[in-house]
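User: I'll paste a sequence; please echo it back and then give the predicted structure.

Assistant: Echoing your sequence first, then the prediction.
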Amino acid sequence: MFNEPLDIKIPDGKIIFHEGFFSLEESHRLMQSLIKTIDWTQDEVIVYGKRHKIPRLNAWYGDEGKVMKYSGLSLEPKTWTKELLEIKSKIEEASGTKFNSCLLNYYRDGKDGMGWHQDNEKELGINPIIASVTFGETRPFQLKHISNKELKKVDIPLSNGSLLTMAGETQHYWKHQIPKTTKTLESRINLTFRQIL
């Protein structure tokens, strides 16, 4: 049985956090399986005219035809695996939301991260619901309001087996990131389930 979900109060957005949504045993089993069975790649993005390898491994899975476009990339979905469907079913039941795609990020150590961004691609619709699952090392998930500089940065430690859901107008008003660190960290896999229109 997982902990009760926590409604994290932020203006102009909606965030719900379930710590321990997956048990430690489930989390360990699923993470080890994902490391082995997912077709991981290290994509390149173009920033100011120069190609850079993104600082993490990633993969895009989903229903046929649900293409994801961001940072100049166009990702064709790979076919759902047994483990991804298991995870998807559990979070759909808990959230009451159906998802048709999933972006996976594999942070091998503290040198891997993701900079400030919004999940506001047009394929996601106006107010997308995004469910984020973490397996492995705890990493800080940081949010900052785009226009209201008086609001403090929000820092949520995403722990092993946790589920964080972003909904409402969050993607319009908030950016988020997983910062890099020089600390010695174990690996972490994050799955963000989405509904591509």
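The CA atoms of residues 67 and 161 lie 27 Å apart. The radius of gyration is 16 Å.
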